[in-house]
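I hope you will forgive my troubling you with a question about protein structure. I am sending you one protein, given as its amino acid sequence and as whole-number tokens for its backbone shapes. Thank you for your consideration; the sequence and its tokens are set out here:
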Amino acid sequence: MPELLTATLVEDAARRHEGVAAFNVITLEHAEAIVAAAEQGPWPVILQVSENAVRYHAGAVGPLAAALRAMAAAAAVPVSLHLDHVEDPALLRRGADAGFSAVMVDAGRLPYDQNVSQTAAATRWLQERNIYVEAELGYVGGKASQADSAHAPGVRTDPEQAASFVAATGVDALAVAVGTSHAMTTRTASIDLELVKALRERLPVPLVLHGSSGVPDDELRRAVRAGITKVNIGTALNVAFTGAVRSQLEGGSGDSARADVDPRGYLDAARTAMTATAAAMLRVVGSP
């Protein structure tokens, strides 16, 4: 199926009052697992690459983007590409050249006025190239660069300020702080559903939930019903990946010396585990 624009997947989900899942990709096994899970539904899916993941690949965004675009073209379901949590202006430009149809401009750690000015400038440049723009307002916990709790006073997204932010920047979607944290390995996060509803009523753009790996299934369903559209998932896949690799290596993958060193055995187990995790999350997000 031809690769679709992220704008199409997000806006279609918003019109249907449903969710669309966006999974973080680090390795090709991540992407293969995500697409395989989406094809089980079938569900549309967004493959997203963070600035941290690009840094892991020695700063080379093009090769990974080319591989993901090839996977999207071969998939039996709608697949789009998104470049996530971008703080480096140079990466915005390289991501656009690499074929990402959406970018998250991450200036959320800056004071409000600087967030507005930097996001507005990046948004103008990206939208001139038909790239869908997501930004963040408020504090979504768990970032290494920030120490505040996601539940501290004043860190959640204020609906009136968010409306001003969207109007001033022209962004297409907004990541909101409603109680979740990045990098959670337990599913214990509690979402402020009344705040989600208030943001949905006040804002003209789709809402994005970061840190969704830490949200229990029922809570995630309620968040989508309350107004969340794009649901970002990363850590849950890494938990499945690492657990499968650890189990495979600790349990032994065979009697031969080759089995002890051949990565295909434990990477296959990791991919299978991630496929199961992604499918379970897609059932929740895609069937609220």
Summary: The mean pLDDT is 89. The first strand starts at residue 20 and ends at 24. The first helix runs from residue 6 to 16. The chain is about 50% helix and 15% strand.
